[in-house]
Design brief:
The chain has 149 residues and is mainly alpha-helical. It has one domain. It is built from 5 helices and 2 strands; from the N terminus they run H-H-H-H-H-E-E. Strand 1 and strand 2 form a beta hairpin. Helix 2 runs antiparallel to helix 4 and helix 3 crosses helix 4.
């Protein structure tokens, strides 16, 4: 009985020493809220992308008409289908942005206490130009994103 007890005590002592070493050797924790910040930003401002899609789609067509070297007929005929096409693409992209925000929300909560970040699921919302683009420590305020350009 005594041999079993001494093995148990030495096992517990070894576990405590290992735990002490892990606590002392561990680097200070640094939480990263980036995934949660991006998720909430996508959830909040994705609907604004949908609302501003006619503005962004029209603006893109206007810029493209200025940049092309085609005849006046092509420029005139391109306007209506171009605006419709760009507006629907902008709306669809706004919907995808909202959905990726919802998908990233739970992992963002889970990663909050750790120094880790989830890769961006929908990169155009991060990389593209927008009507309003302001990075703050709490939230990335970005909407009216030009997904087509």
């Amino acid at each position: 009985m005594r041999g079993v007890r001494s093995r148990r005590v030495s096992g517990i002592a070894g576990a405590l020493v290992a735990l002490l070493f892990a606590v002392v050797a561990a680097a200070p924790a640094q939480a990263s809220p980036e995934t949660l910040k991006r998720s909430v930003s996508n959830i909040l401002f994705g609907p604004f992308d949908i609302v501003f899609s006619p503005v962004v789609g029209g603006q893109t067509v206007y810029r493209n008409i200025q940049d092309i070297d085609d005849s006046m007929w092509v420029r005139v005929v391109y306007v209506v289908p171009g605006v419709v096409w760009n507006t629907t693409l902008e709306m669809g992209s706004g919907i995808i942005r909202c959905m990726t925000g919802l998908i990233e929300f739970v992992p963002g909560l889970g990663l909050l206490p750790f120094d880790a970040d989830l890769d961006v699921l929908f990169a155009p919302a991060e990389k593209a130009d927008a009507l309003v683009d302001e990075d703050t420590p709490v939230l990335n305020i970005k909407f009216g994103v030009n997904y087509v350009d």
